[in-house]
Input
Amino acid sequence: MDYSLQREHRMTRVSFCSFYFLMFFAIGSLFPLLPVYLKDSVGLSGSQIGIIMSISPVVMILVQPLWGVLSDITQKPTVLLTVALTLAGLFGIIFSLLDGYFWLIVIALLLAVVQSALIPLSDSISMNYVHKTKTEYGSIRLWGAVGFAVAVMAVGQLSEHYSLHVIFYSFALVLFLAIFFAAQLPNESRTMQISIRDGIKELANVPRYFLFLFIAFLVLGPILANNIYFGIFVADLGGGLTGIGIAFLLAAGSEAPFMKFASSWIRRLGMMNILVMATCISCLRWFLYFFEPPLGVVYATTIAQGFSVGLFIPAALQYVRELAPVSVGATAISLYSSVGNGLGNWFCTFFGGLILEGYSILHVYLFFGTMSLIALVILCVMKLNQKRAVPV
Output
């Protein structure tokens, strides 16, 4: 490889890493503190907060495929990405100017539509680049976790010194900065045709796959919805905005090391054992929070997020790939993502808001723990049946 080509690859890699850092910095600066803003600054009830925060996962299920189709038609994912970044930043600023419940729902909906394009489009561009250059996707995507972790700490402190409106200004400013690096990304797209109808027909012959979809719904729903309610939980324990930042920094920062070693752990301990362990740790964490532990204990147990997210997600993705026939692998992964990341997230966010209004934030975590416990029981039964099925 000549020097000019090496330099081009190096600059492209810098653009990818910088873009992921900034994009997830923006996400981390807004969404962990948005429920606190809606509760303390706007004065919304728990159910109202739940409805607003559940808009994004619902929109993700419905709108994400449309962005993919638009990218396939135009073959200009980078252009679409810069448009989505610009609109998301503008909607973030407008969000800060509104306080009526109806208008907050409208702006949350508009923001969700354009935000739902950011991660799929950028991941599509980066996966195409990784495939062509034989680069490790994890080494690029890792900067997103770093950006999120830094954002919740830095913006939390800024919000405490000034006001919670800082979260919107930080979100918009950083997205506008990300546009520069997005424009440097390769403007390439690889079309993937997926027949959902034919895929589901073939997957119907694999009942364990649909059972695992239910498990993903029960496990990933609380994990993702925790990003909405964790800030309220820490604030109620007396952590303040800086404390919320510290908690999210520890939790998000713990994911990367576990993801780095996930493959070797899966090979050593077995995929089903990893799924059971990760679900068990997640379940124990939610039940612990129900008993209102001291803030120091909450900080110490945030490492459980690294274990549950960093191990469950890679193991679950591998399990789905092994369960599904090769011909419908893309469909299987697409459905898994929609059920776990979309439907499960919406369900726990929406009903978590209702529970928050009717009871308390502690009961929200009792709800999360109960869902994870059901998943743990099902996984243990599957593991026992798997052992019985193995001939002696």
Notes: The chain has a mean pLDDT of 82. The radius of gyration is 21 Å. The chain has 17 helices and no strands.
